[in-house]
Amino acid sequence: MNSSPLLALVGGVLVIPALVLLWLTLGERLLRLLPPRAQERTRPWIWLAIPLVLGGTILVYPLVQTVLMSFQDRSGTGFVGLANYDWVLSEQVRPVLVNNLIWLIVLPLVTLGLGLVIAALADRVRYEWLIRTVMILPIAISFSAAAIIWRLMYAYQPAGASQTGTLNGILNQLGLEPVAFLSDPAITTWALIVVGIWMSTGTAMLMLSAAIKNVDASTLEAARLDGAGELRAFWHVAVPQITPTIIVVYTTQVIFSLKIFDIVYTMTNGAFGTNVIANRMYAELFQARNYGHASAIAVVLLIVAIPIIVVNVRQFREENAR
Amino acid sequence: MTAPTARRPRLSPWRGLIHLTLLLVGVAWLVPLVGLVLYSFRTIADSAGSGWWNAVVKPWFTVTNYRDAWVTGGIGKAVLNSVLITLPATAITVVICAVCAYALARMTFRGRMTLLAITVSLLVVPPQLTLVPLLRLFNTLGLTGELPSVWLFQAGFVIPFGTYLLYGFFRAFPEELLEAASLDGASVPRTFLSIVLPTSVPIIVALSIIQFMWSWNDLLVPLLFLGGGADVAPATVQIAGLVQSTGGGLNALSAAALISMIPPVVVTLALQRYFVRGILGGAVKG
């Protein structure tokens, strides 16, 4: 952008929204020329025109195009059948899929478990707001900044040297050998997942703690009068009542792990056996310049997301059946 | 759920365990941040020789890192670029989502349920699925490297979430208010602007904060559409690029990261109530 920053700011913040509202006003003028019934029938489409065009261009068109391109060659000109999917399932890509699978299994379970424990415990203390604030902080931080924060946590010097990383500093104090968190292929993916957990547990906790506050207090009291301990009462009475939220949190975290890119990109750029689908796709796109491979590996993400989409739509329809 | 404090002694082992667990979690979550803050104020020599926690024992602080981040790291320019991306993306998102959600929530027409189902199904589409064709499209249109490419992507991509979030609110909007306006002869757009939007400020703030945060922290999209060029790179891209090109010390980078974190952290904490509302309202309820 060569023009002045101020111009860009005014254009984006004021002019574009103003144009959208102008469109509505002009549309209303035109509608007055129609009979009342036709007005009612046409108005929604005037209102929806801009969102549909933008959403269609940014989401629907590329989605369809990506699926098509996954059956095409590297430059997207000729069809090659399932060749790109053969590549996706080949030995070469398998470690990437396995890594994504590890993220997909571990991160949602840990964030859900931790989020539930923290939400349940924080609900019983006066400084809940403080815990919530601390948990929210990482949500507001970019992955780029988090990468630096966690490089400081994981920094590694060979045994004997003075450790500058937080975790190796602690290990050192305990008399243990330092660990190469970010360059030992056996543990690097796990180290990155910890960063993911640090960043996303807050979201899980916020959702679960709202649900816990809605649990019917009298049912818990009844369980206690029947002699159930706190843990049993929580597990058998509260948890069943917040199951819908637990499912929502779980799917949110599954989607988060599925599309994980930034943490890997900024921490290791896929080295030391940490590559995941989104990063491999980025590499296919910009280093190998193979659109076919890039699209096919992206479609894998869609295939994993489809069951969640189906469940979401079904639930929404049940809620809004009319 | 009310805590059963009244019936229990205040310092039972059970309560002690609760406090201890929360303390441990709080410390575990804060230590990485505290480390960054202290590290960013230490000299290069100090931080190469000993861990940041030594700053507590031997306080010796410097602002050199901040000067380096500003002068050689270009963080000032990068933060300005972040503002130029984030504010327009947020404004465009809010207007378009509000219009879309209002039409879906308060107008009756054929295809409404289908559009809603499409909105809900697009909620969880990973952004990676859209990038290859869009990159080609934006190339054809000459939009790559220009700020509007990122505005349009970020706004377009959030339409399903934003619409879904506002839909629930507009759906529950009191009918009487709308009828009264209509009887007064106000047109639909006028009712929308002068009655619906002012009444919906909390939920609109919620959407704005979430979009502000996403947009500010987005790395992949500006990286792809703007390229890594320092001229238009926002803070995320600038910092990620410097991280990858720096092998050793992170001194200037830690300062840069801290500067770039301030706006989203301040906004999120200051408007925490709305932020939480956005997080809760955007999830498909079971």
Any descriptors?
heterodimer; A: 322 residues; mainly alpha; MetI-like fold; 2 domains; 73% helix; B: 286 residues; 15 helices; 0% strand; globular
Could you explain the architecture of this structure?
The complex is a heterodimer of chains A (322) and B (286). By secondary structure, chain A is an all-alpha fold. Chain A folds into two domains: 5-53, no CATH class; 91-319, Orthogonal Bundle (MetI-like fold), CATH 1.10.3720. Helices cover 73% and strands 0% of the residues of chain A. Chain A contains 13 helices and no strands. Chain A has helices at 5-31, 36-69, 83-88, 94-122, 128-136, 143-154, 166-173, 188-213, 217-225, 230-258, 262-267, 277-286, 291-319. Chain A is globular. The model of chain A has no long low-confidence stretch (mean pLDDT 88). By secondary structure, chain B is mostly helical. Chain B has two domains: 13-62, no CATH class; 80-281, Orthogonal Bundle (MetI-like fold). Chain B has helices at residues 13-40, 44-49, 54-57, 64-71, 75-106, 112-122, 128-141, 147-171, 175-183, 188-199, 201-217, 220-226, 235-245, 251-270, 272-281. In chain B, α4 (64-71) packs across α14 (251-270), α8 packs antiparallel against α12 (220-226) and α13 (235-245) runs antiparallel to α14. Chains A and B meet through α1, α2, α4, α5 and α6 of A and α1, α2, α5, α6 and α7 of B.
